[in-house]
Amino acid sequence: MKKVSLLFSALCLSAGAWAGAADQITVQEPYVRLAPPNAPATGAFMVLKNNGDKDVKLLKADNPASKVTELHNHINDNGVMKMRPVAAVEIKAKGEAVLKPGSLHVMLIDLKAPLKEGDSVPLTLSFDDGSSKTVEAKVVRPSAAVAMPPMQHQGHKH
Amino acid sequence: MGWMQEKTQERLLATAAAVLAGLLLWLTIAWQPELPEAPLPRAAAPSGGDFVLESATGPVDLRSFRGRLTLIYFGYTYCPDVCPTSLAATSEGLKRLRPEEAAKVAMLFVSVDPERDTPARLKEYAEFFHPGIVGVTGKPEELASIARRYGAFYARQAVATAGDGYVVDHTSDTYVVGPDGRLLGKIGHATPPDEVVTIIRNYLKQN
To answer: Which of A1, A84, A150, B40 could form a disulfide with A29 if both were Cys (CB 3.0 to 4.6 A apart)?
Structure first.
């Protein structure tokens, strides 16, 4: 397995700068929300920045901690909150897609074992051109995630 | 005798005249006729009201929360993102209250999914967000009636990948019940913790 991936990266390198979507996307502060005890599912959140000139679609996410991984969105239908799978998350050229609680997110359904605070979950994100990248998402307690939403500690607003 | 009667009548007449004059004066100065206004049809405001539901440590009667501001959230523990989002924000707000304020606030998590949510499971779930949140549930018809009275809505939806094949769509506001048991208002879905603090403080000041 390792050999295959080594060979693969070698091929990529030798092919020169293969500017796949995965290369033009920066993933900022990915985290998984610590699930309450017995909860069968939880969400993963992050900001996907597109540094390239082409729109990119995130088509799939995968992780070894849950049996099913889906891209989801919230729909606020007249105050009734509905959560539904989505086929893709679009990341506009030079734009970003924000995956956050109550909005677009990666759903980790049917956790194989309860995740613990501080654990790390490798999330593999696959894009519409077939490229993919894996990021480590830290497991964070919900209150901490609320108290310090990613992106907000970049500047002091006090 | 006749003279006395005449005198009384005179006095009565004078009083009546004075009253009428006063009325006339008041009418000219103060009376502003209201334009007849057709009442707009309006949905009856949710009335809230008391209920008794089951917790892991026995029945919980909303009346036992008199004297405190009580927050009520309708959700369920299999809720993958909506409930955790809202509960995390609200509990973070509760944690930011000063101890003397927090002592005057209570919170109930009402599960509208009694089929999967046992009181024991609810307790564990609610306390994960805040040790003070009491998880309760009851019979489907009781829950339906309470939700209706509070203006909450929920409905089962089949989703193949969800645990046991269904999710429950639901409103995600937190209802605020005053120290006297009256429904005062609601806190919107995922209101940030700081705003939760401000809203609670305002209610505490008014009550």
So the answer is: A150
Provide the sign of the torsion angle of the four alpha carbons B24, B30, B33, B37, taken in this order.
negative
Name the H helices within chain B: 2-30, 82-95, 99-102, 119-129, 140-150, 193-206
Q: Which residues of B touch A139 (CB under 8 A)?
A: none
ipTM above 0.90, yes or no: no
Give B36-90 pLDDT, tens digit per residue: 566 666 666 789 999 999 999 999 999 999 999 999 999 999 888 889 999 999 9
Q: Across the interface, do A81 and B170 touch by the CB < 8 Å criterion?
A: yes
Rounded CA separation B49/B135 (Å) = 18
Distance CA A144, CA A43 (A): 15
Query: From the CA of A25, how many Å to the nearest CA of chain B?
Result: 25
Identify the helix (H) or strand (E) that includes residue A142.
helix A142-147
Structure tokens at A31: 């985290």
| 3-state secondary structure at position A143 | helix
Taking CA atoms, what residue in A is nearest to B190? A102
Chain B residues with beta carbon closer than 8 angstroms to that of A68: 161
Four-point Cα dihedral B125, B131, B132, B133, nearest 10 = -10
